[in-house]
Recover the amino acids of this structure.
């Protein structure tokens, strides 16, 4: 179905493109995390894995990939690196030996305390209110749902 909405001005202007704004915003927000994650030895994708595991663990690789909207093949190198630095373990799930389970080590679980400082630091660096960021999150969640 063709939209009946009309555009004022050039609908192909770069600065009007949602994809462009999302791309730049994503790159810039992830860059804000870099100096905060560096002392913990984490990259942003590794931080997302840790967030998922701090929420619930152990998780199968399949469950983790689903939560993070990643392909298992993309997730595998992240998990290997997290395992090599001592934050997670990977092993066969006791409930189903065909599944690979990921769990936090003691060191990985303890890292959560240090990570508690990250969200407020990001909010401060963005210079937006928590309400604005929650509104943005709701809108982005709708975009994700519409594109999935």
């Amino acid at each position: 179905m063709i939209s009946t909405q009309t555009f004022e001005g050039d609908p192909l202007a770069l600065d009007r493109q949602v994809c462009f704004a999302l791309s730049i915003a994503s790159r810039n927000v992830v860059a804000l995390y870099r100096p905060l994650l560096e002392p913990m030895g984490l990259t942003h994708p590794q931080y997302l894995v840790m967030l998922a595991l701090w929420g619930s663990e152990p998780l199968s690789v399949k469950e983790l990939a689903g939560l993070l909207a990643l392909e298992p093949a993309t997730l595998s190198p992240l998990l290997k690196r997290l395992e090599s630095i001592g934050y997670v373990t990977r092993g066969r799930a006791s409930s189903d030996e065909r599944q690979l389970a990921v769990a936090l080590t003691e060191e990985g679980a303890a890292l959560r305390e240090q990570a508690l400082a990250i969200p407020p630091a990001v909010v401060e660096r963005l210079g937006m209110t928590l309400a604005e960021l929650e509104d943005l999150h709701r809108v982005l969640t709708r975009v994700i749902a519409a594109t999935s």
Notes: The mean pLDDT is 91.
